[in-house]
Amino acid sequence: MTIVKGIEPRGMQHCETTALGVLLRHEALDLSEPMLFGLGSGLSFIYWDGKDMAFPFLGGRVKPFELTRNLAARLGLTLKVEETTSARKAWENAAGPIDAGRPVGLQLDCYHLDYFRSKVHFGGHVVAMYGYDEHDVYLVDTDQQGGAVRSSRAGLAMARAERGPMTARNRSFTITLPAHPLPWQDQIIPAIRHCADAFLAAPIANLGHRGIEKAGKQVPKWLLRAGDPQQDLPQAALLMEKAGTGGALFRALYRDFLDECTQLIDNDNLRTAHKLYAEAATLWTHVSTLIAKAGESSDTGYLEQAGATLHALSRIEKDAMQVLRQL
């Protein structure tokens, strides 16, 4: 058995920030999950409904691994990323850092992990690996998945090699702090402005605040769009609220990030935006509740209420990001 010493296997709410927390704490940088999410400019929105999709997807964050790249660039971290199509090389890329005493992050499809109770394909899942033996690997996943967990080496290999939406080719990564790290507090406002600019200037209409507006128009049609409304709509609501988003489609995490920022920076715009995202988080939870009720009852009235709330959310989040862009 090979185990990295000094690992604090603390599961958090979201997979990528959980893995980042493990890697950064090993480098003696301990930041809260909302701060990791905010410094990585993680908040976004996408309404995604492709021809080959069984049901639309509402996403509340940037693309998988973009948060990690943003955070590393902003804090001056050395991010070493490995990808390969070789199963042998993939294992060497994961085991090598552990043999050298360093945890490693892995992007994979959680469907193949032994400890996952809900078998759903999602290729953008991220875990931290801190040990292995002849049969199993030792991972840190989100709190809801168990925090410190084990999975078979065979299952891990399949999870890492899976192909499909949001997957990567056996991606592994390590993070190293420089000898003289940049003060992370100085990067708060640049991170916020980067996030706000991207949200307000999204290039297509299903992203950012325009995407939320589009969702407001499409969600009332979801009973007709669904193949199995009693399953599809509650599942969509669950993904928004419980499936590693930190609640309210990541808006609760961003609300808490802004709250933490107001304790560090005395700024009226920050306080205003925090209040707006506190309101937005409550409304997103309300939307997910309405969607679930619509699926359970087949009552379009719930979806019409959800659509109206999404229209309001588009305005609220646009206002909040315009305020944040002025920092």
TrEMBL record:
Signal peptide: none annotated. Pfam families: BtrH_N, DUF4872. InterPro entries: BtrH_N (IPR026935), DUF4872 (IPR032369). This is DUF4872 domain-containing protein. It comes from the Bacteria. Residues 14-142 form the Butirosin biosynthesis protein H N-terminal domain. Residues 155-324 form the DUF4872 domain.
